[in-house]
Amino acid sequence: MSEYNVKKLRRTHKGRIIAGVCSGIGEYFGVDANLVRIALAIVTIFGGLGVGVYAIGWLLMPDEYSDTSIVQDLINKQQDRSRTDWSGEQKPMP
């Protein structure tokens, strides 16, 4: 059976400055992360969307050593809490 090399969009640790979003995007598309950073800075200066785009990427892109994003981790924690009643016993899954 052959293995497929599937590229995954992830926040990287190599070349990370803040959260690794730009370096992850650069690695995924095969461009220098500094070009992504410059593009993001231009979008921030002229449209104000750059910070929001970066924040969304930080929340939705999983870390390279994780399978889930920050948002997915929060959703999973909330679901685990909702399955546990006040006595600490697990409720059955529907």
From TrEMBL:
Superkingdom of this protein's organism: Bacteria
- Annotated ranges, domain Phage shock protein PspC N-terminal: 7-64
Where would you find this protein in the cell? Cell membrane
What membrane topology term does the record carry?
Answer: Single-pass membrane protein
Query: Is the keyword Cell membrane assigned to this protein?
Result: yes
Q: Which residues form a coiled coil?
A: none
Q: Where this protein primarily resides, as one coarse class?
A: membrane
Give the InterPro entries listed for this entry.
Phageshock_PspC_N, PspC
Keywords assigned by UniProt, alphabetized: Cell membrane, Membrane, Transmembrane, Transmembrane helix
Residues annotated as transmembrane: 38-60
Q: Which PANTHER family match?
A: PHAGE SHOCK PROTEIN C
Q: What is this protein called?
A: PspC domain-containing protein
